[in-house]
Write a structure and sequence with these properties.
Layout: E1 15-17, E2 19-21, E3 24-26, E4 31-36, E5 41-47, H1 51-68, H2 73-89, H3 91-102, H4 106-126, E6 134-135, E7 142-150, E8 154-157, H5 165-176, E9 181-184, H6 190-204, E10 213-216, H7 220-228, E11 234-238, H8 241-253, E12 257-261, E13 266-270, H9 276-288, E14 298-304, H10 308-321, H11 340-355, E15 359-362, E16 377-380, E17 396-402, H12 405-413, E18 417-418, E19 420-424, H13 428-435, E20 444-447, E21 459-460, E22 463-464, E23 471-472, E24 481-489
Parallel strand pairs: 1-5, 8-9, 8-11, 9-10, 11-12, 13-14, 13-19, 14-17, 16-17, 19-20
Antiparallel strand pairs: 2-3, 2-10, 4-5, 6-7, 7-24, 15-16, 18-22, 21-23
Length: 505
C-alpha cells in the first residue's frame, strides 16, 4: 500500500468507507482496491456498499429532497458557491489525486478540478436565471405559462476517465435545480469520489443539508440497483455503449428518465486548404490527451489526398517525440492506461488493424515495466475496416485518405457513435457545409479546433449510440427538472379551447 503518495490535505486513510448517506459514512460490502496505473501499486482500499446500504442511501436522498426542494433556488446556489470555493482551496491536491488514481497527466488532473470550479460558477448563475416562458393563450382573459420544478433524487453513475468533473456537470446543476444526488463512481477511481464527498460534507453538514450529496461506491451490482430503483426518477450514466444500453433498458422498464453520455469515435477532417500546423496540434492533443481515454478522443483523421503524405510524416515524427511516463512529471504528455484489461484491448485493436491490412506507421507496442503504458500508435487504415468503426480506449489514431469533403463527411458519419467532430479548412463554404444538415451528424461539431476539450458553457453530449443526453451548459438543466404548463383564467367566462362548445342550456 502506498498511501504516502496521496496528498495529506485530503484526509484519506489506507482503508476508507465508500458509502456516505446524509453525512454518515459506512461500507460493509465488497472491498475495492484503488490502483495507481503508473506503477501498478495499491493506493488504498475502499469498502463498498451492501445492497441494503445502497437502498438506504437512496431512501436518505429521497428524504432529504423534501427539504432541499423547498429552499429557494438562489439559496441553493449559495451553497454551491461555497462548494466551489472549497474546490479552489483543494485544486492542487485534488488534481494530484486525479492523476494518481486515473493516470492522466498532472495538468489534466488539475484541469479537471478547474472544470468542477467552472461548473460551480455556472450553476450559481443558473440558480438565479431558471425560468419558464409566458405563452399566448387563444382564450380571452387567460394567461398561460410554463414553470419548472425539482424532479427528485438523481442517480449519477460516472466513469474512471473523468472521475470528478462529470459528476459535477450533473450533481452541481441538479442541486441548484432542487434535486438530491446518489453518486456511484467507477470502481476504478473511488478515492477521488470520497475526497469530493468530504469537501461537500464540510460545506453542507453545518447547514443541515448533508443529505444533498450522497455516495455509493461499489461494482456493477451497485449500479444496477441504482438504475432499477423507482425512487430515482432520473439516472445519468457515463460509460461504454454496452453499459448505457443496460441502464437505458432498466430505467425505461420502470418509466424513468435516463441521461446517457456514452462512447465516441470522433473524427477530424483535414482538407487541402487547411492550416496544417493548427490541425496537427489539434490532432495530437485530441488523440493523445488522457492517453486516448476520453469519449471525445480523436480516433480518426480523414485527410484529403494532397495533404496525406505530409500529414503522415509529421504525425509520425510527433508521435515518436511525445514523452510517455509518470503523469506527475511535468514533461510527460501521455500517462498510462487505466489497467491491464485496457492494455489487452489496445493489443487486440492493433492486431485487428494489421490483420485487416492497416499499416502501423509508429507505435503499436506495450511498454515493458511497471504500470500500464503503451506506445502512441498511428495506423494508416481504410474507413471500411471494422476496427476503425469501433471505439478503443487507447492512444490509437487511424489515418484515412479521402478524395474531398463529401466523401470525408460520409466516412465520418459512418460509425455507430455521434459525439464530437471537427474540420480544418480555410474555406467558409466547406466549414458551413460541415455544420449544415448535410454535414456532421454529431452532437458537437467544430471548425479549426479539435474534438476534445469542450467548454462547460455549451451542452455536452452526442447522438446515435452516444446516447443522446446533454450535460453541463446551455439548457441542459432542464433534464433535472419537471416542466409544468399552467393556465389562469382571470375573467368571468369559461371559453373552451379550439372553440369547443359544451352548453347545458
Amino acid at each position: 500500500m502506498n498511501t504516502r503518495e496521496i496528498p495529506p490535505e485530503l484526509d484519506l486513510q489506507p482503508v476508507e468507507a465508500g458509502v456516505c448517506s446524509n453525512g454518515t459514512w459506512s461500507g460493509q460490502g465488497e472491498e475495492l482496491v484503488s490502483i495507481n496505473p503508473a506503477n501498478s501499486e495499491e493506493l488504498a482500499r475502499v469498502t463498498g456498499a451492501t445492497p441494503e446500504e445502497t437502498l438506504n442511501t437512496i431512501q436518505g436522498a429521497d428524504n432529504s429532497f423534501e427539504d432541499w426542494k423547498k429552499l429557494p433556488a438562489p439559496r441553493r446556489g449559495e451553497y454551491i458557491r461555497l462548494i466551489g470555493e472549497e474546490l479552489r482551496r483543494f485544486k492542487k491536491p485534488l488534481g494530484k489525486l486525479v492523476s494518481l488514481e486515473c493516470g492522466k497527466v498532472l495538468s489534466e488532473g488539475e484541469g479537471e478540478v478547474q472544470e468542477m470550479i467552472d461548473i460551480a460558477d455556472f450553476a450559481v448563475g443558473l440558480s438565479r436565471t431558471i425560468g419558464g416562458a409566458t405563452l399566448p393563450s387563444e382564450r380571452p382573459d387567460h394567461r398561460m405559462f410554463e414553470q419548472w420544478h425539482p424532479l427528485g433524487p438523481v442517480g449519477v453513475i460516472t466513469a474512471f476517465n473523468f472521475p470528478v468533473a462529470v459528476w459535477s456537470w450533473n450533481a452541481l446543476v441538479a442541486a441548484i435545480c432542487g434535486d438530491t444526488i446518489v453518486w456511484k463512481p467507477s470502481e476504478k477511481t473511488p478515492l477521488t469520489a470520497i475526497a469530493v464527498q468530504k469537501i461537500c460534507n464540510r460545506v453542507l453538514e453545518p447547514e443541515g443539508f448533508a443529505g444533498v450529496f450522497n455516495l455509493c461506491c461499489g461494482g456493477t451490482e451497485t449500479g444496477e440497483r441504482i438504475a432499477a430503483d423507482e425512487r430515482l426518477p432520473l439516472i445519468s450514466a457515463t460509460g461504454s455503449c454496452r453499459m448505457g444500453r443496460e441502464v437505458a433498458v432498466a430505467v425505461a422498464g420502470r418509466m424513468g428518465r435516463s441521461l446517457l453520455e456514452l462512447g465516441g469515435n470522433n473524427a477530424i477532417i483535414i482538407l487541402d486548404d487547411a492550416d496544417v500546423d493548427l490541425g496537427l496540434r489539434a490532432v495530437l492533443f485530441g488523440s493523445l490527451g488522457t492517453a486516448g481515454q476520453r469519449c471525445t478522443t480523436t480516433r480518426r483523421v480523414l485527410a484529403q489526398k494532397g495533404i496525406l503524405p505530409t500529414l503522415a510524416k509529421r504525425l509520425t515524427e510527433a508521435f515518436e517525440s511525445v514523452i510517455v511516463g509518470d503523469p506527475l512529471d511535468p514533461k510527460t504528455l501521455v500517462g498510462p492506461l487505466i489497467d491491464e484489461e485496457a492494455v489487452n484491448t489496445f493489443e487486440k485493436a492493433v492486431a485487428a488493424a494489421r490483420d485487416s491490412g492497416g499499416e502501423v506507421l509508429t507505435g503499436g507496442q506495450v511498454i515493458e515495466g511497471p504500470g500500464f503504458f503503451v506506445q502512441p500508435t498511428l495506423i494508416k487504415a481504410d474507413s471500411g475496416m471494422e476496427i476503425v468503426r469501433e471505439e478503443t480506449f487507447a492512444p490509437i489514431l487511424y489515418l484515412l485518405e479521402t478524395d474531398g469533403l463529401d466523401e470525408a463527411i460520409s466516412a465520418q458519419n459512418n460509425v455507430r457513435q455521434g459525439l464530437s467532430s471537427a474540420i480544418f479548412t480555410d474555406s467558409v463554404r466547406n466549414a458551413e457545409r460541415f455544420l449544415s444538415v448535410a454535414g456532421s451528424d454529431c452532437g458537437i461539431a467544430n471548425v479549426n479546433i479539435g474534438t476534445s476539450g469542450a467548454e462547460i458553457g455549451g451542452a455536452f453530449g452526442g447522438e446515435k449510440e452516444t446516447g443522446g443526453g446533454r450535460e453541463a451548459g446551455s439548457d441542459s438543466w432542464k433534464a433535472y427538472m419537471r416542466r409544468q404548463t399552467c393556465t389562469i383564467n382571470y375573467g368571468t367566462e369559461l371559453p373552451l379551447a379550439q372553440g369547443v362548445r359544451f352548453d347545458l342550456d
